[in-house]
Amino acid sequence: MALLMFMAPAPQGGQGDATGQLLQTLFMFGAIILIFYFMMIRPQQKRAKEHRALLDSLKKGDKVVTGSGIHGVVHDLSDTTVVVTVAPNTNVTFDRSSISSVTKS
């Protein structure tokens, strides 16, 4: 319906022209907000949800990589921390959120 209004010839009066410009401006702001949502906000929310699922699925013996690039094997888990074995007899405790990925090998 709004698209048909923009295709109609412009009214000759001064008052109708202002209403058309206001609708066109509102339409453009709405389009910009939709583009912003689908290009930036939605993908970020999807990545955050995937990361949360990754952290919830951690278990002992998983090979992980931290955000700082340290590779190791999960030795122990708690609600907020992960103990990672990085070398024989060397365990390091990290926040659960600092785990960036689980490796396959």
Q: What would a concise description of this structure say?
A:
The protein has 105 residues and is of the alpha+beta class. It has helices spanning 2-7, 14-56; strands at 63-66, 71-77, 81-87, 90-95, 99-103.
How would you sum up this structure, described in words?
This protein starts with a helix and ends with a strand. A hairpin with a 3-residue loop joins β2 (about 70-75) and β3 (about 80-85). It folds into two domains: about 15-55; about 60-105, SH3 type barrels (Roll). It has a five-stranded antiparallel beta sheet, with helices on one face. By secondary structure, the protein is of the alpha+beta class. It is rod-shaped. The chain has helices at about 1-5, 15-55; strands at about 65, 70-75, 80-85, 90-95, 100-105.
SSE map:
Blueprint: H1 2-7, H2 14-56, E1 63-66, E2 71-77, E3 81-87, E4 90-95, E5 99-103
Antiparallel strand pairs: 1-2, 1-5, 2-3, 3-4
**Could you say what the CATH architecture of the largest domain is?**
Roll
Strand content: 25-35%
How many alpha or pi helices? 2
CATH topology of the largest domain: SH3 type barrels
Order of helices and strands: HHEEEEE
Give the total of domains. 2
Decide which structural class fits the backbone: alpha+beta
Read across the widest sheet, the strand sequence of neighbours is 4-3-2-1-5
Quaternary structure type: single chain
Shape: rod-shaped
Features:
2 helices; alpha+beta; 2 domains; rod-shaped; 5-stranded antiparallel sheet; 105 residues; SH3 type barrels
